[in-house]
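Researcher: I'd like a candidate sequence for this fold, 104 residues long. If you have to choose between options at a position, lean toward the conservative one.
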């Protein structure tokens, strides 16, 4: 069994942001909504967030659609403190997903 450090798991604040962002994606104009506005401010490509959601699902043994049923948060906060932390955490999440794929 693969051992992952706590940093490789998606943290609660990261999951909350991804949850709101994913829900907004279903909207007619998602970029007018809070999570997408934060995404634009921090210049993170949508594909990075989609990959993080898919990685979360694989790491947790769930379907990516399960994210829609995790909670009811209206105003997300940006979960990372800097551009460097954003890049590092998204890379860690994707790397953990790749490691999980190799061991299954």
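Model: Candidate sequence:
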């Amino acid at each position: 069994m693969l051992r992952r450090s706590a940093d490789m798991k998606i943290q609660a604040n990261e999951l909350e942001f991804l949850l709101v962002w994913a829900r907004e994606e279903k909207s007619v104009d998602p970029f007018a909504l809070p999570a997408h506005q934060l995404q634009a401010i921090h210049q993170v490509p949508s594909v990075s967030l989609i990959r993080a959601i898919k990685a979360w699902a694989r790491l947790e043994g769930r379907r990516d659609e399960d994210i829609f049923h995790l909670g009811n948060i209206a105003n997300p906060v940006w979960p990372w403190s800097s551009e460097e932390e954003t890049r590092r955490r998204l890379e860690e999440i994707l790397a953990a997903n790749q490691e999980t794929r190799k061991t299954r």
